[in-house]
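Researcher: For the record, we're logging two predictions in this thread. I'll number them. Prediction 1 follows.
Model: Prediction 1, sequence and structure:
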Amino acid sequence: MATAIYPGTFDPVTNGHLDILHRACHLFDKVVVGVAPNARKEPLFDATERRDFILANIGDLNVEVTCFKGLVVDFAAEVGAVALIRGLRAVSDFEFEFQMTQMNRDLNQDIETIFLMPGARYFFTSSTLMKQVSYFDPERISKFVPLNVAAALKRKFEHD
């Protein structure tokens, strides 16, 4: 049974992330979504909230969602994954993803990286953009994030 991991911060999960997840499920028997901390930025939602947002939107997919810390290749090996799923939206994503892929390959040659692109309507969506737009007008992001995420973003920014 081929397992892949789809790691990310998912702060918060977007419909673009879910689109990539659905695509990955067509390629692998099982996909483990790894919700990670991000040392480069302060997350708006804690890891448990981010995990729960994803769990509420996976339906009957053969997906496991868990939080992890540490190197993604170590997490992949721990769950028996043969591949990492990474989403690419635009050429601007490629340089960072290329460097990360090369490092991961050096750390564990047995784990491949698979790049998937979301559907065209999600090319420009990112968690950062969703938070920025939601801060000013939460009603306008409902087509880009799951309903539970839109509601949570609205609650987060009601008190600002």
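Researcher: Logged. Prediction 2.
Model: Prediction 2, sequence and structure:
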Amino acid sequence: MDIKKKVIKLEDIKKDADELQCPVEKSLYLITVFLSGPMCGRCFPCSMGCYEAKLILDNIIAGNSSYEELENLKRIADEVLVSSLCKKGKDTAKFLLEWIDTGDFEKHINGICPEKVCPEYIEYRIISDKCTMCGDCLHACKLGAIHGEKKEQFISGYQPFEIRQIKCTKCGECIKVCPEKAIVLLDVKSEEPVGV
């Protein structure tokens, strides 16, 4: 029986990564898929460097990073670019350095995802003054992250709608269905509405 392993090309990985919005997400995707596919693992700087880069990128996405880690990420990418024995390793480092140069990595370290997609840096919140308690958001949220009671005529004492952040996956379905535009996307750090 002849089992052929599917060859994953670095160009395809880069193309898929480019479909993501955030440069940090792009970098994490590229490194993760590179580690599980086209990386041969024969040269130490590339294999160890990419593994270390993935750990740092995981920390940045999770909101647990520092400027020191970012400097380490740059140093790793520079070393892989120079020391890797193959074009795949060098190209991976080159792509990583291009995304680091966007400045978005520093903004993540400061607690802001400029593209508003990294879940640890954003949250959805209901503005109670605008909410008419129609319940559309409650039905749109498949994970039960929205709590409150739908308003009924001639009855008072309702629990207002709120989004429980611990359950919210930041899918954005609630914001799409709100007829009053009472749900806003916030930067967690600044707590200022995004694009309002």
